[in-house]
């Protein structure tokens, strides 16, 4: 697939044919560059996540969800501010999707959708960790919305399969028990490299900063 939109069109076509067939949707076509494949898959995930964000707006407000949380064990801080700070979950969701779009559309890091440098592909894991937190919040705090969306899209199941298959996220951070092999790890003590505070008490929340894109679309690794 050597045209600009060929990979995107292939992915979207397989989703339309059967959105529950995650294996077919995620299988790299013969001869396809894997870096481009991962990039286009992540673009598609972010596109579809906007649908979940719209559903969340019906009840996820600054009053009902004043922080971006996932159970009482995880609090995510937003760095779309001068210093990382608590941010209403719905604003955090918007900031995260905006930041992902900024990076994935960056001419500096992704000037071509036919060939992508390894150094740019390496940035995809950071995007995956951040957008996954939208699934986490929806699952633990808006379960009926999550279930409705998942029944219509299989999006979290597909995303979980994707990040495991391509080693884009640590299993320790996959806290939504959507699959048998993606076990619920909310009780473990691991945090990613963006932790800004950690209480040794297991009952204390883990606070993780979400670094939003810099003007050039950079997400710190």
Automatic annotation (TrEMBL):
Where Zn(2+) is bound, by residue?
60, 65, 137, 142
Any Pfam family the entry gives: Mob1_phocein
Q: Which InterPro entries match?
A: MOB_kinase_act_fam, MOB_kinase_act_sf
Q: Does the keyword Nucleus apply?
A: no
Is Metal-binding among the key words of this record?
A: yes
Domain of life, per UniProt, equals: Eukaryota
Record PANTHER family: MPS ONE BINDER KINASE ACTIVATOR-LIKE MOB
Q: What is this protein called?
A: Uncharacterized protein
